[in-house]
Write a structure and sequence with these properties.
- The protein is of the alpha+beta class.
- It has 8 helices and 6 strands.
- Among the domains are: 131 residues, Roll (Chitinase A, domain 3), CATH 3.10.50.40; 33 residues; 37 residues, no CATH class.
- It is elongated, with a radius of gyration of 44 Å.
């Protein structure tokens, strides 16, 4: 009897030990589920610092990494549910490409087409915008609430089959903030090194930047196949136009509205009459002399 009891107890201990060997500790579970994988996560997402609550069950297939999903979403700061800081009626994105914050990516991988859910991110350092935030909209380490609805999902895409057309374009919150700060710093430094011009210098620089009909070098530095010097070209052009205007005015090409105008034909007719009268007078004078 004693041997049977001891054997039974030993068997139970071994069985319990074998069973516990397949259970991931709580800390490891959190670490495991917070990493991306090609498998779908549990429908109800409840990680320390990230909670998802389903409002409407989805009737379509589950989202998978690489699919192109159309998502309707609104993002709020706690207490500002009536004023979202980001929203879209239909945003297309690739599931699991890592371009969004991690809390968004994790929640998206748990959803089905047609599903609507709310997601709260309390641990901003792990799942949100972190210490950097998105000034002045999202403060540092601010919790975020999101309402997401999966409208549709297209065929799965191979992530490595597409090249990034703009690999230097900042996409993550930290990269966007860094690019913004660098641009502001460069702008400030440029203003310090090159203060804005004033007075006559400003207008000289302004005139130099104008682009006249493709004849001169423009702001882009592109040059025409010919080159004209403005200091010589413009005075000559103005002189020619002025001379043409003066000649036209002098010879009657330009006249006051309503004034009597005689054109070249009128002058020819008048001249013809004068010549005829002159010949007649001369003929009569010669005839009188012959008669006498």
């Amino acid at each position: 009897m004693t041997m049977s009891t001891s054997t039974l107890l030993l068997t139970l201990v071994l069985a319990a030990t074998s069973t516990m060997a397949f259970i991931v500790p709580t800390t490891q579970q959190s670490s495991y589920t917070s990493k991306f994988s090609n498998t779908k996560l549990h429908e109800s997402l409840a990680i320390d610092g990230l909670v998802k609550k389903v409002i409407k069950e989805g009737t379509g297939p589950a989202l998978e990494r690489g699919q192109v999903a159309s998502v309707k979403y609104s993002c709020y700061l706690p207490g500002t549910e009536t004023k979202p800081f980001a929203q879209s009626e239909k945003q297309r994105m690739i599931v699991g490409d890592g371009q969004m914050i991690e809390g968004w990516e994790l929640a998206l991988l748990t959803m089905n087409v047609g599903e609507r859910a709310t997601v709260r991110i309390d641990d901003a350092a792990k799942f949100g915008y972190g210490e950097a935030g998105v000034p002045p909209i999202v403060p540092s380490n601010a919790p975020i609430e999101m309402e997401m609805e999966i409208l549709s999902a297209e065929e799965r895409l191979e992530m490595g089959a597409f090249a990034n057309n703009e690999p230097l374009t900042p996409r993550t919150p930290k990269a966007i903030r860094a690019a913004y700060e660098a641009r502001q710093s460069a702008k400030l430094q440029d203003e310090i090194e090159n203060p804005p011009l004033e007075g006559l210098d400003y207008w000289k620089d302004k005139i130099k930047s104008y682009y006249f009909f493709g004849f001169f070098e423009g702001e882009t530095g592109q040059q025409a196949p010919w080159f004209l010097r403005p200091s010589i070209t413009f005075p000559i052009a103005f002189a020619i136009v002025g001379a043409a205007f003066y000649v036209s005015l002098k010879f009657g090409a330009i006249s006051e509205r309503g004034a009597q105008v005689t054109d070249e034909l009128d002058e020819l007719i008048t001249l013809q009459g004068v010549l005829r009268d002159g010949f007649m007078m001369a003929f009569l004078d010669v005839s009188d002399k012959i008669t006498v």
